[in-house]
Amino acid sequence: MTGMQLLKWENDRIVEEWGSFDLFGRLRQRGVLPERAEQRR
User: Which Gene3D superfamilies does UniProt cross-reference here (predicted)?
Assistant: First the structure.
């Protein structure tokens, strides 16, 4: 799955975390959502 995760470290500890991933891409892979029209050709 495509995504990213960013961590903020202070004194060797994680103090903040941000994450994002391609939910629509994952749902398309599972067949929950149809493929985009340009991919069907």
Answer: 3.10.450.50
